[in-house]
Design a protein that fits this description.
There is one protein chain. The protein has one domain: 3-Layer(aba) Sandwich (Rossmann fold), CATH 3.40.50.2020. It contains 4 helices and 7 strands, in the order αβαβαβαββββ. It has a 5-stranded parallel sheet with strand order 2-1-3-4-5. Helix 4 links the parallel strand 3 and strand 4. Helix 1 packs across helix 2.
């Protein structure tokens, strides 16, 4: 299966977002791939507020059955979420459960005015009614496969498919 160029998708997302951000827009990336993508978009859009990141490990609905992920990171949102328009960034949107967990955590920081979802890839197969407002591409992925965003030694973004 030929995967799209993640760098080109990131550039396209930046073009889509440019008309929808203001100096007061906050951006939050979901660890790990969403945070990498958010770093790139944040820089491309020259947003004034610092970038926030979330590790949703403790907010997952499968936490009790799968246990804690081996590399939990601290969430960091260095701005006031209350009343703010937010862009929530994830790399691959699949079932919607990661985004649900991220929104639950965001509300622990305050009540945003709005949350718009940005995804590099929408692979469909949603289990929850969650939809991205900005997406790089929609891509069907064979069942049982995991689509992941990675970075090479030079920091370039690349998609990979793990069967």
């Amino acid at each position: 299966m030929q995967l799209p160029d993640a760098e080109a998708l990131c550039a396209d997302l930046a073009r889509q977002l440019r008309a929808h951000v203001t100096p007061e827009t906050g951006m939050v990336g979901i660890h790990t791939g969403g945070a990498w993508l958010a770093e790139r978009l944040h820089r491309a859009l020259a947003l004034a507020l610092p970038l926030g990141t979330l590790d949703i490990s403790f907010y997952r609905d499968d936490y009790r059955t799968t246990g804690l992920h081996k590399s939990v990171r601290a969430s960091r949102i260095p701005f006031d979420v209350g009343g703010r328009h937010l862009l929530l960034v994830d790399d691959v949107l699949y079932t919607g459960r990661t985004v649900r967990a991220a929104m639950n955590e965001l509300f622990d920081y305050g009540r945003p005015e709005s949350i718009r979802l940005v995804a590099l890839v929408d692979r469909g197969e949603r289990e929850l009614p969650i939809c991205p407002q900005f997406v790089g591409t929609a891509l069907g992925v064979p069942g049982g496969s995991m689509l992941r965003l990675g970075r090479d030694a030079g920091g370039r973004l690349a998609l990979r498919l793990d069967a």
